[in-house]
């Protein structure tokens, strides 16, 4: 097992180097530069443009800038936003808990609903439940997040007024963030009604962000279960007279979970991509919204630092999934 | 550390206010996050709404809802006969805000004025580069480093600005956001603690509201400044709830989660107006959208060709289709709300037949040209691509083939400014200081060729008039010259003036005292909210 983990960790090194190159290169291949965008219609003279680019260090050869960037990284320094002048790490980690909170809620909802729905659809293959749930999953998978979010806001916040429109908590509550996770901080604050307000604010963004992973997990679970349910050992279990619940729950589901776990791991990347849109619609102060703003402003250090940190998170999750995979399926760790 | 202290005291302040039954809070759903809280390094309106308008004052300010310059931190000022010296007499008894992170020990005086300006112009000032990458873009783009020769402290309450040349818009420039006055005492304290960058995170000013807390990308909280020289504000708390999506801002307004929000989508206006809990105010924006020909390139180097093309554009169709009625046809290069606007100008009549004949008379046949369309929506132009398509169709009717060009915004701005750029470019401008020179001089003067003068148009008779007007101090004299300049502009037609957009401001009916700002900012001083 140790060898397996070390092997997986070693795989990360070239990936990390690749990510630094991609993150560094990505913003620089985009046309336009921060100075032009900051000046807007006011324009900027060529001399002033050159002076400002030099001030940011963007006039130096790319390889020099890259070396500086990597040297900084090795010293734990991600640089400073050229717009807000605040260190990237401070900006990222002040916003990251909001994204984590939303993503965790979304993936939990997706798993808790998606797996049972997929299992039930497989067991009752061809039934009205199977057809309806898989139909809904297909619609959910194809739904543009932006449109879906606005639709929910108009219905539940606008017409029915059941949920707040956007934000993380009602603005009447005001306390110092301790963990950055609003659900926890609202409890710690001791303010009456704060936790309920935080939960209410989470409902719609969670539903929107969970929609695609939920659809994918349900469909994947169904097809994996169908495959497993046709295996000889399941038939044997049935022949031994085990109850249908035990056959499905113990024998079939555990084996069907292997591709499902992989899918869940892959959904983390999808979640972070979805968070960009979800956060924008719901004014959710997370890293998705921050990254988009940074890209629009060509805030090179923020984009390259942010992308690297997001990539690290995705890699860490995938590594965990790999390790879990090894636990669930011994054949993999012994290969 | 700053954040922790800010929050600790802010919580106390909030608790105190929450404990007061009559505490009034106004929530404004702002459209974006401020880049920082020091106004001078930034040019974005979003940043200035959150900083200079709420937290700071300037020596002079624009009258609320007007472009007239009125006294603020300076009670009065005199201009020397040669127009080179401006002496400002400062208001006494002005207090800086007291917050959790700073308690002022003295009132506002001349040192604060010198600090606020010298940090932007003296390269040896420790504040010139108080954190890496700080640039004084607005100060520089208004040519202040070349204009200001010296700033002299005559006494504690008198400051003299010495200029290198007479410049009539100078006072109006001092009402702009970059000229906000910061506390030197606070700056000294930060410098001593080696925390200069905090001036951009935890601000102190003399303005109507004091900074309480900022949660990045989420919410900014302010409390009324109890000792404000203009009197305490009718509301106790002001909250900016950052809501970037325009459709979501509309929903929040309707749900009562905020009482004011900027930039509603035109398609939502009818719904907002129909809501009995809301009112929608509107005002002609201090802006212009134009199509600038490259007047250095044939056949656009001839005024008769440019005039003929202008006749071919159906501007009303653009207002209807692109602005969805929220705009008006432009006939002059300055907006109608600006002083010196020439009412007597006769606009080019939309007449494709006449345009075709005029082009034939000018010997222009089978012309193929590029029309540049911006990739972004701007306050003066919601959809440049659609506008370009309409112009393309209009020009096709007079036998002119149009290829629409678009590119990334930064590149667009850069390439559109190049002297040898081909074709005509759609662009626009929003006024900075309410002065006609900010349009006629900046956008059409010879000095702007290769930069802001996108028509690359340098016409001496026009330029001389505009430059002369800049040296005069009497508004009536200047207005006369600017009216002459507008007549020359119309005759020479370096642009097709397309539209002035209308700006809308939806508010809760509970809100009173709000005045729309022709310069496009959002001010909450003097605003009240009913319980």
Automatic annotation (TrEMBL), chain A:
Transmembrane segments: 9-30, 100-123, 135-160, 198-218, 256-282, 302-328
Annotated compartments: Cell membrane
InterPro entries to which the protein is assigned, alphabetical: BPD_transp_1_N (IPR045621), MetI-like (IPR000515), MetI-like_sf (IPR035906)
UniProt keyword terms in alphabetical order: Cell membrane, Membrane, Transmembrane, Transmembrane helix, Transport
Membership in a protein family: Belongs to the binding-protein-dependent transport system permease family.
Name the UniProt record assigns to this protein: Dipeptide transport system permease protein
Domain ABC transmembrane type-1, residue spans: 96-325
Classification via PANTHER family: DIPEPTIDE TRANSPORT SYSTEM PERMEASE PROTEIN DPPB-RELATED
Topological type in the membrane: Multi-pass membrane protein
Pfam families (alphabetical): BPD_transp_1, BPD_transp_1_N
TrEMBL record, chain B:
Keywords tagged on the record: Signal
Signal peptide: 1-23
Domain of life the protein comes from: Bacteria
Subcellular location per the Swiss-Prot or TrEMBL entry: Periplasm
Entry keyword Signal: yes
Listed Gene3D superfamilies: Dipeptide-binding Protein, Domain 1 (3.90.76.10), Dipeptide-binding Protein, Domain 3 (3.10.105.10), Periplasmic binding protein-like II (3.40.190.10)
Major subcellular site: periplasm
Domain Solute-binding protein family: 68-450
Signal listed as a keyword: yes
Family as reported in the entry's similarity comment: Belongs to the bacterial solute-binding protein 5 family.
This protein's name: Dipeptide transport system substrate-binding protein
